[in-house]
Specification:
Elements lengths: L4 H7 L40 H13 L4 E5 L2 H9 L7 E5 L4 H11 L5 E5 L4 H7 L4 E7 L11 H11 L2 E5 L4 H4 L9 E5 L13 E5 L2 H14 L5 H12 L1 H20 L4 E6 L5 E6 L2 H10 L4 E2 L9 E3 L11 H7 L5 E5 L5 H16 L1
Parallel strand pairs: 2-3, 2-4, 4-5, 5-6, 10-11
Antiparallel strand pairs: 1-7, 6-7, 8-9, 9-12, 11-12
Helix pairs in contact: 2-9, 3-4, 11-13
Bound molecules: pyridoxal-5'-phosphate (PLP).
The site of pyridoxal-5'-phosphate has 14 residues, from helix 3 and helix 4.
């Protein structure tokens, strides 16, 4: 049995149809599959339901996350949308207060109108979570660390509360990936990923995942999956599979770089605060004024000013105008997401080049 995450990343995907000895999983670019005879199936009927390339990817992600099953979607938001189909009118949901802005937009502007009630709070504060729980509370949705303020929730602790109260725990594991955090092993019921980020790792493919801890949840979500049809295409499945092969080694290098950059940022007079969880490549930092923040965005050259995260290329984002633009101003400011906040996704370039790029942009911003 393969145990080490490095080995699982390389060898976790299995092609159960392999008769050729091919080392990589082929792209089964087929929408439909013929039947051997009436009432029989090869196991594949129609690619919205199952496709061999996507199936290999789903198995690989299920193994990495220690899940029962994994479903691959056309984006992280497609995965989140199907997940929200589990919610019923009058269900009460507790969510981390500082979720990815797209998740907030979906919950507030799409899901709430179906009669679902959502309360946002710091899910790291277990007492505050316990206080909010009522008989209608059916789900707790956690992002840890949060995006972009890096608030941490102890998954094992919150899962113990959920189990006691019969609440399902959902964890968005996009930021830490199974290399650093396996929510199902800590008691979560469902894990969500934007596969566009670290799993894919090359800023070339959109993807999303839902990983379930048990058969019952898998059956419910598989039914929604085949009915709604937001599935990942075969070629995109191949690209994410290829990305996953280097996930563990990328995360090692990214974390090594990010630690050095977080330390360096902490020593700069133009930088007021640095938020870094100590793992993975996501660093948020604040300058003293909006002007400096904007100039840094425009001056960086190796690091690119672009939305998204988790790829081999370092990117810098302006949450107020990008990821969190749709979060209401009052809420955004209460969380500290203001015009001085920048979010860096550290890549695998040489750290000296990244620091030199930041150093020059900070110096230029000052002049
Ligand atoms: C933490 C997190 N979850 C979910 C998503 C949504 O994923 P996607 O952009 O693949 O739809 C994002 C996107 O940035 C994210 O950062």
């Amino acid at each position: 049995m393969l145990q080490n995450i490095n080995t699982l990343c390389v060898h976790g995907a299995k092609d159960k149809n392999n008769t050729t000895g091919a080392i990589t999983i082929p792209v089964y670019q087929s929408a439909t599959f013929s039947h051997p005879c009436v009432g029989q199936s090869t196991g594949y009927d129609y690619s919205r339901l199952q496709n061999p390339t996507r199936e290999a990817l789903e198995n690989a992600v299920a193994v990495l996350e220690s899940g029962y099953d994994a479903m691959a979607f056309s984006s992280g938001m497609a995965a989140m949308t199907i997940l929200c189909e589990l919610f019923n009118p009058n269900d009460h949901i507790i969510a981390s207060q500082d979720l990815y802005g797209g998740s907030v937009r979906l919950l507030d502007n799409v899901v709430k109108k179906n009669g679902v009630l959502v309360d946002y709070l710091n899910t790291g504060d277990i007492d505050a979570v316990k206080e909010k729980i009522r008989s209608e509370t059916k789900f707790i949705f956690v992002e840890t660390p949060t995006n972009p303020m890096m608030q941490i929730t102890d998954i094992a602790k919150i899962s113990a509360v959920c189990k006691e109260k019969n609440i399902l725990l959902i964890v968005d594991n996009t930021f830490l990936t199974p290399v650093y955090q396996k929510p199902i092993e800590l008691g979560a019921d469902i894990v969500l990923h934007s596969g566009t980020k670290y799993l894919g790792g090359h800023n070339d493919t959109l993807a999303g995942f839902l990983v379930t801890a048990n058969e019952e949840l898998s059956e419910k979500l598989r039914y929604l999956y085949k009915t709604i049809g937001a599935c990942l295409a075969p070629w995109d499945s191949f690209l994410i599979l290829r990305g996953i092969k280097t996930l563990a080694i990328r995360m090692e290098r990214i974390t090594e770089n990010a630690k050095k950059i977080a330390d360096w940022l902490g020593e700069q007079s133009a930088v007021k605060t640095v938020l870094y969880s100590g793992q993975s490549g996501m660093i948020s930092f604040k300058t003293y004024d909006a002007d400096t923040a904007k100039k840094i965005l425009e001056k960086v050259k190796v690091i690119q000013y672009a939305e998204s995260l988790g790829g081999v290329e370092s990117l810098i984002t302006y949450p107020v105008l990008q990821t969190h633009a749709d979060v209401p101003l009052e809420k955004r400011l209460a969380l500290g997401i203001d015009e001085t906040l920048l979010r860096l996704s550290v890549g695998i370039e040489h750290v000296d080049d990244l620091i030199a790029d930041l150093e020059k942009s900070v110096a230029d911003a000052d002049s």
